[in-house]
Amino acid sequence: DDRFHKIAKGIIDRCAEVGFLYPDTDRPGKLNQNTIELVERAILRKARQCVSGYGAEDFSVRHDVIYQSRDNGSSDRAVASLLKPVAAGLSNHLYTLLSHEEIVSPRTVPLRDDMLYDSKWLRSPKTFMSGYWCQLHQAFQSKQSWLNRFELMAWIATVAYSSKYDEQVTQALLAIALSPSVSAAPLPSESAYDLSQGHEVQNTRLGSIADSAALSFDRTPAARLVPRPHEQGHQIANRRRQEYTNMKHKAGRLFEAELSLQWPCEHPHAPSDRDIASYIDTPKAMRSVVGEWKNWYDNREFCGYLANLTERIEEVPVDRSMVNGSFAQPTILPKSQSLGFVSVDDLLRHSQAPTTPTRSSLISKISRGRSTSSGEITKLIPLLDFLDDKAEPGFERRYLGELRQSLDSLKDYMSWELAQDHASALPMVFQEHLLQCETNVKSIYEALSNALNQIQQNIPAAIQQAIQNIRYRPRICPMFFLEQLRTSRWSALSKSWQDAIAQYGLAITALQQAKRLVSFCKDQADLVRELENSGHAGWRVHEYPEWLLLECESEIIIRQVQQQIARHMMQPPDDRNTSLQLNMGEGKSSVIVPIVASAQGDGSHLVRVVVAKPQSKQMYQMLVSKLAGFLDRPVYQLPFSRDIQLSESQAETIHKHVTRCMREGGVLLVQPEHLLSFQLMELECHADQKSRVAEKMVEIRQFFHESSTDVVDEIDENLSVKFELVYTVGQQRPIDHSPDRWRVIQEVLGLVFHS
């Protein structure tokens, strides 16, 4: 697919654009620009054959131009060049071309399908003339309109386009097709012709036949010659043999001459000369001559047919009037430009969303919660009151206040455990629940698919059936419906479709949870933990559809505490910075950061994830696995350091880089060293009088300040006052008051030790 070439070019161009950020990495080679242009043309041409989501959107009219036709101008030379007189010896030329193969069934009409575009018409005329010439003549003689105008145009144009184009042959074919007087020429009567045998009597062939039919020596008068006086035996034998040779040769020449004098006639007569009959078996020779003679005579008749046809072509009148072919061509601009394909929006807009029924869960009563007893909580209240009387204002008061809040939360806390009356039947219940979830997912998917494939009232059924038969509609699959959960697609859906697709996503997460329950049957701790998380509590799918998409792709269910922390991060109290402490294994990197990034990365905010260098690689892999799949959110990096000799164009590239990240709803993964180095580089550029580069960096810093939302991992380390980055400038020199500043300390400590 040519689109892979375009994607590869985009990757190479992106690498070349930001390659200065990776000075130790090899630069990829550039692709041939001419090849890229051909690829773009190929993509544009194939776009009309693709469906929505698989290349149809690549169609564009930006390369279209108004056609400047060349037929409006008039030129005497051009008109004169159109006149192609019939060449002398056309019939002989046609005979030569037709001689390459045997002509069979000349009065059979060829199939019309054979006249469609085919590569055989682009070959030399000698490859197809023998098989089609007489048949084409027969077809047009039987019915002049055997081929309609457009079929004839396509066929003749193909023949004329051949690199071995013969204009005289093409003109003759066109005359047969268009001129009734030419096509009326009588066709030869035989059923087969072998024109390679010639159309004139061939004396050499007659001589060969005579030689092959010669009588043996014993049967000729030469064998009975009378011996001469005093002639010995070997002498008479030699004389008789010589006489046989001479007379046989003379008889062969007489045989050729007498038959040649009979040409042209259809049936030759055997020569009556006694000298011929004395040395040649005339009946045997004539049997061979008749077959050859018939070929020559039939070919002579065929040659006459070609001569007659050529004369008729020459007699076709030529219109010598000059017509001014120029005309005023009106400029017609389309009022509207349709997409040219059935888009996903069209499909969903013209389809009514189905109603998806909800089913009761079989596992709702398997686990039960137990709240903390009020007696246990009551025992702690006097202790807190006692500590409250003893506490000092400030930190101790604050600590006790948070401790009371924790005690209030303990009142609402419930611990979960399995119901003992269901313990033995758990495997069977979970298997039945899994089967129910599979059935539910399948039924919802079928309902969604049927809703898209149903016949619409406002569109003719024949048109809809034709669209289905040619498979021109978007491809329907489970991924098609899950893709609608993306933020870019969700807002375009109607409320009914949002409800139906959300129900499908929830059914998938329930199926995934059912599979986990089956696998946790023997692990009570994991089983209780899974049952404890009913899912989708505290947040609505319609508000955060990509969270549901993340659940489906990662096969997880966002726990309530995770969504609470995410909401607290997205909507901090008083819109101020906030810091949170999480326990190990609470899904900080795998769940909380991705859902915060997907919610905040709406195209108007840049989400920056700041991690220390040891965790950077793992965090990058985690973000790519969670965001770069179904959610289609790119993960960018900005590995900035002092090794980069920044120029104005490179600073502009960084600005475009981070702006593109925000526009695409991506995540910018950075390390504290990168941000600090970027700030120090700005100061260094000011100090080195690189004002234009410094101005660009100021713009980027202001962009970060105004548009970015930072998610900082391990803030106790990354925001520690001990964490700093220093750019050294100037020449290396000793520090102030060295070495006295440390020698004095050592001497004082030595005196203290001895005292």
UniProtKB/TrEMBL annotation:
GO biological process, one term: proteolysis
InterPro entries found in the cross-reference section: DUF3638, OTU_Deubiquitinase
Top-level enzyme category: hydrolase
Domain of life: Eukaryota
Catalytic activity, as annotated: Thiol-dependent hydrolysis of ester, thioester, amide, peptide and isopeptide bonds formed by the C-terminal Gly of ubiquitin (a 76-residue protein attached to proteins as an intracellular targeting signal)
Pfam family, one: DUF3638
EC number of the protein: 3.4.19.12
GO MF annotation, one: cysteine-type deubiquitinase activity
Keywords, ordered alphabetically: Hydrolase, Protease, Thiol protease, Ubl conjugation pathway
Residue stretches making up the DUF3638 domain: 536-752
Record protein name field: ubiquitinyl hydrolase 1
Species this chain originates from: Fusarium kuroshium
